[in-house]
Amino acid sequence: MTIRLHDTLSGELQPLEPLEPGHVRIYSCGPTVYGPAHVGNFRSFLFADLLVRYLRYRGLRVTWVMNITDIDDKIIRGARADRASIEGLANRWIERFLADASALRMTSPDVLPRATRHINEIVLLIEVLLAKGHAYRVEDGSIFFRISSWPEYGRLARLDPENLRVGERVEADEYGKDDVRDFALWKGPKADEPSWTTSLGPGRPGWHIECSAMSMRHLGESFDIHTGGVDLVFPHHEDEIAQSEAATGTRFVRTWLHCAHLRMGGEKMAKSTGNFARVADLLGAGVPARAIRYVLLAVHYRQGLDYSEATVEAATAALDRLDTAVAALDAYESDHGDDATVGGLLDGTRAAFETALDDDLNVSAGLAAIFDVVREANRRLAARSISTGDAARIAALIRDLDGVLGILPDAAEALEPDLAALIEQRRTARANREWARSDELRDELAGRGITVEDTRDGQRWRRTEAGR
RNA sequence: GGCGACGUGGUGAAGUGGCUCAACACGGAGGUCUGCAAAACCUCUACUCACCGGUUCGAAUCCGGUCGUCGCCUCCA
Question: ipTM score here?
Answer without folding.
Answer: 0.95
